[in-house]
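Appendix B. Raw example, untouched.
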Amino acid sequence: MTQPNQALAPRISVDLSAPVPPLAQIRQWLATALADLADDLLQDLLLLCTELVSNAYDHACAPRRLRVHRSRDRDALRIEVDDGSPDRLPVTGTSRLGAFRGRGLLMVDTLSRRRWGTQLGAEGKTVWAELPLS
């Protein structure tokens, strides 16, 4: 995993090549890089990133990458997680990992005000969500 730029930057990109999701590191780096956010927005952002990255590790194959950037045309932060499994699309409220799983995308749906989705690419997919800043 490469460390994102620690300065307050409009775009953060993290390679997720570690065999287990480096969630604590991601949360620490994002909290530092986006320290200007109100605490409630930062906590929502950290939760969104944790859920999307966890899903990529639980339900998809490598390669994986996390990107966070401020939307130029919308007052929002956009979270994007790439993975190498275009055939495994996210499904809200269900999990192949058991009955006590599957609530993460419900949280993503709520926090993003239903501004999330999937984009298919040539070698994988991107699951994205937008966190409104206002």
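End of appendix B.
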